[in-house]
Give the backbone structure.
Amino acid sequence: MQNKPYIGVPIGDPAGIGPEIALKSCLNDRVLETSNPVLVGDLSVLQNIIDLYKLPLKLYAIDDPKKADYSKGRVNVVDVNSVDIKKLELGKVDAMCGQAAFDYIKKSVELTQEKKVDAIATTPINKESLKAAKVPYIGHTEILADLSGTKDPLTMFEIDKERVFFLSRHVSLRQAIDMVKKPRLMDYIKRSLEALDRLGVKGTLAVAGLNPHSGEHGLFGTEEMDEIVPAIEEMQKQGYDVIGPVPADSIFAIGLTGKWAAILSLYHDQGHIATKTYDFHRTISITNGMPFLRTSVDHGTAMDIAGKNIANEISMVEAIVLAAKYAPYFTSK
């Protein structure tokens, strides 16, 4: 494959499984065939994992990813040098590691701004480590939004033939239901379809129902009648390709057939449960609405298995491959 996209991979919390899955992904043929992966982190942390697991890889510190050699067995690293390797304990929450994880993300964003990488595929970070380091964010999305000056990033999952957007993220279920309002729905329908267009995807957006059977005309709740249907009808009048509400007990199964370009889930777990039950490891998160493309694994730092050489890198592989798939569309806009 010619002109493969350059994908920046911040290695996440140094004490978690991020460094392990990032390195193992660099051995995967699909990653090497579709992208030029660039790890962003501490050279010493990565070398420690290579030595510990006897991985057939050699590290090279680089400054400009687009001038590097990407031969098999070679791993190019932008060395951030944030960790004292003598103090690193795998599997342990540590302020040093929280700060390092933030530093890796910040450097990755700088690389996108300098046009040295075409997209970012992130590994897990640990909320407790971030807090210990007094890093004032709860996760990747909030960090990336602030660093890129983005007000409200738009999360999308992709698994197989299904793409899922979310009307709300990390709020209580009670709050999420209260957020199902016509103005917010209209805004998210518009933004979701615009995000699909930026990724080169055409087709219909299907909106999930909130209540059982989408409310059955008020028998099981009135949100569909009061907020959801009016929002959909208004956006249809404005020319947007959107339908619904489709009952939530069937919309995700139908979505896997590829019938629609994407689904709008009305709260966090509604879409998360459906996609992760289908294939936990291959459910990949894409953050839209920022100046750069970001994909991510959708699992945690797995501190309990860090350092044991048993972490599954499939999600990381899929995140890098997906970033490479969409990067050409994204960068051409």
Q: What stands out?
A: The domain at 161-275 is CATH 3.40.718.10 (Isopropylmalate Dehydrogenase).
